[in-house]
Amino acid sequence: MAEGTVTFFAEKLSNLILQQASVFGEVEGQIKLLRNELEWMRLFLRDADSKRVYDERVKLWVNQIRSATHDAEDVVDEFILNMDHRKRRLNTLKFLPTCVGMVDKLPFIHKLDSRVKDINAMIGAIMANRSKYGLEDLTASSSSTADQAVSHKEKRAPVVEESDVVGIDDGANKVKQMLMMKVETSTRSVVSIVGMGGLGKTTLAKKVYNQRDVQGHFDCKAWVYVSQEFRAREILLAIALQVMSLSDEEKKEMGEDELGKKLCGYLGEKKYLVVMDDVWSSEVWSRLQPHFPDQAKDGSIVLITTRNKEIALHATSEEFIYELRHMNDDESWQLFLKKAFRGTGTTTPTVTTELEELQEKIVTKCKGLPLAIVVLGGLLSTKEKTKQSWEKVLASVEWHLDQGPESCMGILALSYNDLPYYLKSCFLYCGIFPEDSEIDAGHLIKLWLAEGFIQRRGKERLEDIAEDYMHQLIHRSLIQVADRRVDGRVESCRMHDLLRDLAVSEAKDANFFEVHENMDSTFPISIRRLVIHQNLINHDISHCLHNSSSGLRSLVSFRSGTIRKKSWGYLREHIKLLTVLNLIEERFGRHMLPRDIGQLIHLKLLFIAGSFDKLKLPSSMDRLVNLQSLYLQNVCNIPHSIWKLKKLRHLECPFSKVSSQSQINKCVNGYLGVEQLTNLQTLALEGGSWLERDGLGKLTQLRSLELPDCSTSYLRTEFFESIAKLTALESLFLSFPKEHTKKALVNRLGLVWEKKNVTIDHHNKTLLSRLMPFLHHVYLYELSLDGMLEKLPEQIEFYPPKLLRLDLWRCKLTDDPMMILKKLPSLRMLELGLDAYVGKKMVCSSGGFLQLERLKLYELNELEELIAERGAMSSLKTLEIRYCYKMKKLHHGLLELTNLEKLSLRGSCHESIKEIEEAGGEDWDKLRKIMC
């Protein structure tokens, strides 16, 4: 970890020397000396950092280097902050002569010079201690992993899926029998899976939960993660959202009791299955039990996974408890081989005789724990397939196992220590998220970028490098894929609770971050990153920092009440060097961020979500010149000076408007427009005057564009030409306000409106060709359109050539869109909603939609029939038809789809369901298995 700290700061210092040499002035020599010392320290740390766990002397030496590096970073960043304040102060006193400005600068220069000299002397003393205390044998050598920075983005084979874990089938069959048993009474039953951490409780429960016959056996199902941070209302809300509909007001306002009663009333009429994963205390069941109706439809089940059998016995009887066994030696070896040899292109790897000789040693060390096996296998998959290489790792495992009672933790710690420095920081950072939470991959990557963990590799895009880092952690089984995007990339990930425990422990030891768990905690004087998971009911963040220095770099809160207006002035001194401000469920007084937030000039990420209050950004935002990512979930007014922030890479404010720049301001300060943000990768913003020119088309690096309110007043020729120029786009969402009529839209396009048709000028054959020419958008895989359209173009060449997902809303199409869309060769997901089509019948003809895996239709208020001809949609796995109230019948062709796994028919096809249920037979057997 110390190697990463030094490396990241050394790179930062090198960039500052290049960019701000004139600012440092006569101190530049001392700054360069500091940079050179850091480079030398980095080389020695590469080996020392991994040896610190073996030798207390090494641990002390490494900690001193880390502390000195933090001090140096604080000194440099405070100087830059002071110089920024000085510059702005002088700008208000323009009448003063230049010499006064130079004199004003001298105290800052002298202070910097003195402090940097002190730090250089301190570093010299620390380095001298190597020989003084017998540490001179530390060399720059490193493990085969650590010294091999990846020079290009690797293409990896898919990770072995959780359902492939060997030896799990017997357990799955026994648990399934418990869930689907015949019962004589109409009472709810509780089933429990018990086993120690890392044994595979969640994996087993998921395997059973996702099986077709289990899905079809219950009327409704829900899965919730409980974990140690138990909050009854959140658990109840999570269950309710999976089985029933709640209004926004109910989600926000209903208390625990009211929500529990509503849920109980709904479940009382259903045969339900609720999985509560990772229960840590008997209180959970005692608190939630009243909200699961005991008198329910025959066969209702609550499934609990827990490490503690006493908790299971508190909720159910011995006969309904399944205790997970450890894997035997053969099963352990099979699973290990899957992990150690994945990516070799074979399902049955060839193992040399000398490696087979290590079989007993490997399976003995893992003690039948699946998590230990997959992590060790993931570690050895990165090593040479030789006996010498593997024995070296196993010898290290031996030492780690001697350090604590849990063998699994020893193997996990070894896998962490084997990581190269640039992955260690990324792995530890995953520990900031609450236990058992699903981590959005895009947000995690933006956090890594803001923290400076991503090292440049030639001309590669930073986000692509970060994605590769994530793949490496997945490949090593240190994080798990929770969900994938339609293009196969990672949508979200999870961290096993034992791995998270390891990350939190290592982070605390390295002063990497602190997790605020209770108000009695004693925090160190120097906190670099503070993470808050619990509500601060009687206190706010200032309570946690009252003894701390001003070196806080990241504040990440997942709970409300973190910052109160009255404490902002006090807090300002502690967060003046902040680079990450990530607030969820936060509310600000008077709906405005603090006016002086612009003083946080080192801020790289500002993320505010969870509160739906209207928010206003202060004009001082234009001082955040280092800001890379701005995410606002709130309805927000953004000052036009946002266009000054040229380092912005992600501007995600889909409910926000940017104010227009006045003519006076243009004359005084020059024109400000979106085209100045040439580094933008993501843009989500309501339309406005910023669309009037062709600036949008100059954002050639843009990967994702979301315009949820394209007012017709801005739909000029330049807008459509700009869309055509954005050929790097991967995802595009355009929404035209529903109050704008088709006539208004056509008039804005310069077309001629007639009562019965639209006459297009000779340059365009259809209205859509003017809107979106996608022929050259070869990377565009996701397209969403919301608003009235004349008709869909018939020419297949018009559409993005590699389109995987298409969403259409409120289009008012009168012709059956399936006749055209069936020809899209790569389409995997199709969603039509909110009267996207206003006809009565849709036909999926034979041979069409061969790649389609998911079809969703909702609120198509005129639709009466969806016909699937034989040979259509042969790959379809999920079909959702929701609130199409005029659709009474389910076409028999839909039940003949051989790959269909999930069918949701809320508010649709009730007559057919009743008829099929009454008739029984094969159709009912299939329908009940796939209904959800």
The percent of residues in helical segments reads: 25-40%
The best one-word shape is globular
Across the major sheet, the strand order is: 9-10-11-12-13-15-17-19-20-21-24-25-26-28-30-31
In total, how many beta strands?
31
Content-based structural category: alpha/beta
Low-confidence stretches: 95-103, 138-164, 739-769
Number of helices: 33
| Percentage of β-strand residues | 5-15%
Oligomeric state of this protein = single chain
What does the average pLDDT come to?
Answer: 78
Q: What is the end-to-end distance?
A: 47 Å
Question: What characterizes the major β-sheet?
Answer: 16 strands, parallel
Radius of gyration: 30 Å
Structural features, described:
This protein is of the alpha/beta class and 932 residues long. Helix content is 39%, strand content 14%. The chain has 33 helices and 31 strands. The strands form six sheets. Strands 9-10-11-12-13-15-17-19-20-21-24-25-26-28-30-31 form a 16-stranded parallel sheet. Helix 27 links the parallel strand 20 (704-707) and strand 21. Helix 14 (329-340) packs parallel to helix 17 (370-380) and helix 20 (421-429) packs across helix 22 (462-475). The chain starts with a helix and ends with a helix. Mean pLDDT is 78; it is low at 95-103, 138-164 and 739-769.
Describe this structure in a few short sentences:
With 932 residues, the protein is an alpha/beta fold. The chain contains 33 helices and 31 strands. Strand 20, helix 27 (717-725) and strand 21 form a beta-alpha-beta unit.
